[in-house]
Amino acid sequence: MSSGIFAELLFRQNILILERDSRGVFRPLGRTPDWCSALLPPDTAPAGSFAPEAIFSFLEYFLPEAGRFWADATGGELRSGIWVETNPDGIELHLAATACVVGRKKILLIRRLEQEFDQLQSVYQKGRELLLTHERLVAETSKKEILLHCIIHDLAGPLSGITGTLQVLEGEELTAQAARLVELGRRAARQQSRLIDDLLATFRAETGALDTIDPDPAHAPDAVTCARDVLDSLLPAFAIREVSGRVDVARGLPERVLVSGEKGRLERIFHNLIQNALRYSPAKGLVTVGFQREDTAVRITVEDQGEGVPPEIVPQLFQKFVRGGNNRGKSGLGLYFCRISVEQWGGSIGCERRPEGGTRFWFRLNLV
User: Fold this and answer.
1) Confidence of residue 346 (pLDDT cuts 50, 70, 90)
2) How high is the mean pLDDT of the chain?
3) Phi then psi for 257, rounded to 5 degrees?
4) C-alpha distances in angstroms, 127 versus 29, 76, 117, 120, 246?
5) 78 φ, ψ to 5°?
C-alpha cells in the first residue's frame, strides 16, 4: 500500500498525521482533518512546520515522554490517553495521541474520538445506574431483613409462652381427651417453630454471599460426617416410623469428603432431604444417603422407597412454597433453601424417580 493511500485512510479516520524531523519540529503529512483545521495556524500546509504543543496543550506533557520513546524505540507505540480541547466555536474535542516509528520516521498521530468517547460515556453511565440500582436493592434488602426479624420476634415470643403453658398442662391431671388436645397443641407449636426456622434459614441463604465460603481446606465441611451426624439426630423419628437409614460411600472417594460449602448450611440441606425422604417412606422402608465421585466433584443422593414425586411437580419442586403431591410437606421452603445454597456454592441439584420405585434427590458439590 502506497504512503499516499495510507495517509488518505488515516485522514478518513479523523487522524492528524505529524512527522517529527531531526530538529524536533513537526510537519503535517497528507490532508488535515476538518475537525483540526480551525485549530492549526492559517498558513499551515503539508510542507510547513509548527509546534503541536502550542495548539494542543496536553502535548506539552506528552511530547517529552514521546521524545524518549522515539530515541530508543524498538517497536510498538506510546499512547497518551484521552484529553479534551475546545475549538474556537466552543465545541469540546475528545482527542488521543499515539507516538510510533514507521521505517525511520518518527510519527505522531492525533485522533478525534467522539464515537469512542460517547461509547465510553455510555458504559460509565450504565455503570453508575447499576451502582445506584444495587445500592437501592441493598437498602431494600436491609429494610426487609429488619422487618422479617421483627415479624419473627413477634411470632416467636407468644409461641414460647404457648409452648411453656402446654408443658405445664402436661404435668396436670388431665382427662384422656384433654391430654390429647395438649399433645396436638404441642405438635402445632413445634410445627410453627420449624416454620420460623425455615423462614430465617431461607432468608439468610438468599442474602448470603459467596465469600462466606472459607477457601481453606482445613475449614471445608466433611460431607460424609455431616450426613452421618444428621442421620443420627433423626434416629428417634426413624424408629417411630419403622424406617431404616444408612450411608453408602462408593470407592474412589477420600477418607474425608471435603466439599465447597459451609458446615451449618450443609447439615441443614441433609436434614431437609433426609427428613423429606423419611416423611414419604413406607413402614419397613429404607432411606439411603449415597456418595459417588464425579471428576473433581462428589454426587450425593438421598433415596427413599415411597410412592415417588409426581412428574408434573418435579420442574417446580425447588421453587418457593412448592410441596409434594399429597401436601405432607411443611412450609415448602426446605427444597428451595437447598437449591439456593448448593447453587451459591457452585454446585447443582435435582430430583428424579427411581426405576425401582421411590424418589432420588441428588446434589453435586466440588471437592476441596
Assistant:
1) very high
2) 82
3) -90, 85
4) 40, 32, 15, 10, 52
5) -125, 125
User: Which domains, from first to last, does the chain contain?
Assistant: 3-113 (3.30.450.20), 118-207 (1.10.287), 212-366 (3.30.565.10)
Do 224 and 291 contact (CB within 8 A), yes or no?
yes
Rounded to 10°, the helix 223-233/263-279 angle is 50
Angle at 333 between CA 201 and CA 283, to 5 degrees: 110
